[in-house]
Design goal:
This protein is mostly beta strands. It has one domain (2-101): 3-layer Sandwich (Rieske Iron-sulfur Protein), CATH 2.102.10. The protein is built from no helices and 10 strands. It has a 4-stranded antiparallel sheet, with no helix packed on it. A 3-stranded antiparallel sheet has the order 1-10-9, with no helix packed on it. A 3-stranded antiparallel sheet has the order 5-6-7, with no helix packed on it. The radius of gyration is 13 Å and the shape is globular.
Length: 103
């Protein structure tokens, strides 16, 4: 697994998500409070991108059908999604967001 530079921490506003591409994989990078999370940017219910959804604490809400996912574990918390999304390790170094991914 390699560390991928996902951009400047200062460019990621709190309560927002952005999408980065790592090879053929889309990853949602989310800043909530003092934490930065990285999850696969695909709802396991219908394949929609999660980045347009609301961030509520450590959860992201799918903008299409309202399924909730835990940003820490990737667990599907509410129907209509039942399968988890993949999560990726993050770190901040010199003001940059780094994501560990097997892209």
């Amino acid at each position: 697994m390699a560390w991928i530079d996902a951009g400047a921490l200062s460019d990621l506003a709190g309560g927002r998500a952005i999408t980065i591409t790592a090879g053929s994989r889309l990853i949602a990078v989310v800043r909530s409070a003092d934490q930065v999370y990285a999850i696969e940017d695909i709802c396991t219910h219908d394949g929609a991108e999660l980045t347009g959804g609301q961030i509520e604490g450590s959860e992201i809400v799918c903008p299409r059908h309202g399924a909730r996912f835990c940003l820490r574990t990737g667990a599907a918390l509410t129907p209509p999604a039942y399968e988890p999304v993949r999560v990726f390790e993050t770190k901040i170094e010199a003001g940059r967001i780094w994501i560990r991914c097997d892209a």
